[in-house]
């Protein structure tokens, strides 16, 4: 976590001394965030349409919920500082893939790959990067399917490609990730290493449970 003095330092580095330049920067920064918000709306609409289509039949809705967020300015500044980049609009667009984020929560693992495949096949979406942390979990046990995509957003005077990070995971994976995130950003946690080890064990249990639940679903669906 950033200390108060660090936050003040980042704010000073971010904004020019001249009030007029600061005001102009803030207008352009807010405009950029509006564009990222618009990209999120485009992705969410696509996902909602896919979910409606897939809900026909006996399999039900594959998507339990869709969450979204825009990275906070202080988080953007902190990440750029770690990268040794200045806090300019161009460096945000060129260096950060996760300013706009959409999280898709599914019931079963096969739903994750089904949704990811359908997103990939949309001809107006450009796939920038895919990281499969389900088949290759992080050392701490984290599992999720990550996609960095570019989606066209139509404004009054132009069309602009905007990047969005899509995370697709099961309900159990999401519950685990939220708890691990809480530990990560807590200061002065006693026995943090022990808790991290317990979470890693839980990640294995959750992974096995997800696979078992998928097997049970397939058995149920095999009956007419």
Fold and architecture overview:
The protein has helices at residues 4-14, 19-54, 73-82, 89-95, 109-121, 171-184, 192-221, and strands spanning 63-70, 100-106, 126-132, 145-154, 159-170. By secondary structure, it is of the alpha+beta class. It has a single domain (4-170), classed as Beta Polymerase, domain 2 (2-Layer Sandwich), CATH 3.30.460.10. Strands 1-2-5-4-3 form a five-stranded mixed β-sheet. A hairpin with a 4-residue loop joins strand 4 (145-154) and strand 5. Helix 6 (171-184) runs antiparallel to helix 7 (192-221). The model has no long low-confidence stretch (mean pLDDT 88).
Question: What kind of sheet is the major sheet?
Answer: 5 strands, mixed
- Kindly report the name of the CATH homologous superfamily: Beta Polymerase, domain 2
The counted number of beta strands is: 5
H-E string: HHEHHEHEEEHH
What's the mean pLDDT score? 88
Overall geometric form: flat
Number of helices: 7
Tell me which oligomeric state these chains represent.
single chain
CATH topology: Beta Polymerase, domain 2
Under CATH at level 1, the class stands as Alpha Beta
- Cα-to-Cα separation, first versus last residue: 54 Å
Order of adjacent strands in the largest pleated sheet: 1-2-5-4-3
Number of domains: 1
Please state the CA-atom Rg, rounded to the nearest Å.
20 Å
Helix content: 40-55%
Structural topology:
Blueprint: H1 4-14, H2 19-54, E1 63-70, H3 73-82, H4 89-95, E2 100-106, H5 109-121, E3 126-132, E4 145-154, E5 159-170, H6 171-184, H7 192-221
Parallel strand pairs: 2-5
Antiparallel strand pairs: 1-2, 3-4, 4-5
Helix pairs in contact: 1-3, 6-7
